[in-house]
């Protein structure tokens, strides 16, 4: 054991290829992978040997590993503290981490608190015991609307199409009030500010709709960590479970939401699997939170009976066919399409299972 010895800490930029390779090898020796969106690593060295590391990706700590010879010491506590200090310098104070449930006790000792646990697969933790409760209290204080039928939609809207607008209109017609949450993370072709404006402006004519920024508690598939889960299918299923349980256990009760609406998915297997997961985690699984009824609404189609989709719009924009893309979106979205050249980075990639 090395508990009487003091390691040295350093910050490594993830763009440093040689250092990243060293961290990847260390993680592999500890049975872990490496996530692509990490911006920085905090590493601990003893006698120049790497003995611990954690990655920082925005507000999330990932790829956390401690060498076997240092486990049971205070190194993990110091490592997480160093990561929190660096994250604070980056402007991130509210932090999350995903880990195996067996590690929850260790991270509780580092000041993180469990939000959701999915069997023996994964747990989501936050560095405050009150963060999600404070968020839900604010939702309830400012946006609770009376009614017997309160519904919700979570969407990425990358970009906002006539299909999205139809889904909102249809859902709103079946509810006393409808809450629409726009995924907040900037991992899509269109920025969050653009997507939020598109949804807000494209649904302004519907009086019983409130559009919300998604917050850190509605998770993007694009930033969900998979470093401790080897199988991609398992990663996708765990992501869906955590995202949906957060919604069912915390967000929905705050606003008395008992209905969730989603469009059918004829094209993308990942999104179709997420829709199936919605029925399981919102309707079927036992939970202390009330059951949420899931409604799958048939997609709006174009003049050729082809479902309107954001991925089709992005494909047309990638081909510089703005005229065809414009026919698939409401007038409130068209101004954003004229900036399509700015979005070439990921115009053809569906990055989230939200609609």
Report on this model:
There is one protein chain. This protein is α/β, with parallel strands linked by helices. The protein has two domains: 8-128, Gcn5-related N-acetyltransferase (GNAT) (Aminopeptidase, 3-Layer(aba) Sandwich); 131-339, Rossmann fold (3-Layer(aba) Sandwich), CATH 3.40.50. Helices cover 37% and strands 20% of the residues. The protein has eleven helices and twelve strands. It has helices at residues 17-29, 75-89, 104-108, 131-143, 162-173, 192-202, 232-255, 269-284, 310-318, 322-326, 331-337, and strands at residues 8-13, 40-46, 49-57, 60-66, 96-99, 113-118, 122-126, 150-155, 177-182, 209-213, 259-263, 293-297. Strands 1-2-3-4-5-7-6 form a seven-stranded mixed sheet, with helices on both faces. A hairpin with a 2-residue loop joins strand 3 and strand 4. Helix 4 (131-143) packs across helix 7 and helix 7 packs across helix 8 (269-284). The chain is globular. The N and C termini lie far apart (50 Å). Residues 344-353 have low confidence and may be disordered.
């Amino acid at each position: 054991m090395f508990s009487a010895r003091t390691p040295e800490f350093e910050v490594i930029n993830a763009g440093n290829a040689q250092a990243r390779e060293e961290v990847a090898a260390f993680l592999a020796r500890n049975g872990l992978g490496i996530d692509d969106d990490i911006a920085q690593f905090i590493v601990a060295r003893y006698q120049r040997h790497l003995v611990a590391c954690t990655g920082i990706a925005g507000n999330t700590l990932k790829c956390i590993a401690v060498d076997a010879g240092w486990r049971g010491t205070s190194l993990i506590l110091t490592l997480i503290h160093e990561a929190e200090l660096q994250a604070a310098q980056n402007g991130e104070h509210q932090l999350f981490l995903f880990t195996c449930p067996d590690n929850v006790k260790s991270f509780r000792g580092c000041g993180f608190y469990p939000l959701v646990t999915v069997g023996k697969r994964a747990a989501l933790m936050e560095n405050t015991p009150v963060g999600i409760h404070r968020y839900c209290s604010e939702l309830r204080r400012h946006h609770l609307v009376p009614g017997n039928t309160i519904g919700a939609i979570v969407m990425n809207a990358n970009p906002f199409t006539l299909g999205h607008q139809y889904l909102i209109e249809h859902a709103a017609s079946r509810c006393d009030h409808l809450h629409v949450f726009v995924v907040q993370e900037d991992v899509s072709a269109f920025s969050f500010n653009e997507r939020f404006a598109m949804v807000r402006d494209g649904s302004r004519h519907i009086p019983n709709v409130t559009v919300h920024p998604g917050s850190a508690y509605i998770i993007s598939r694009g930033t969900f960590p998979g470093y401790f889960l080897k199988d991609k299918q398992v990663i996708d299923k765990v992501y869906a479970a955590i995202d949906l349980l957060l919604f069912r256990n915390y967000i929905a009760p705050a606003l008395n939401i008992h209905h969730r609406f989603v469009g059918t998915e004829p094209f993308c297997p990942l999104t179709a699997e997420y829709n199936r997961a919605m029925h399981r985690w919102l309707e079927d699984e036992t939970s202390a939170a009330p059951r949420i009824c899931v409604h799958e609404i048939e997609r709006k189609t174009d003049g050729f009976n082809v479902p309107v989709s954001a991925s089709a719009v992005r494909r047309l924009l990638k081909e510089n066919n703005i005229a065809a893309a414009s026919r698939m979106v409401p007038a409130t979205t068209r101004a954003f399409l004229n900036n399509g050249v700015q979005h070439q980075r990921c115009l053809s990639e569906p990055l989230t299972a939200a609609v």
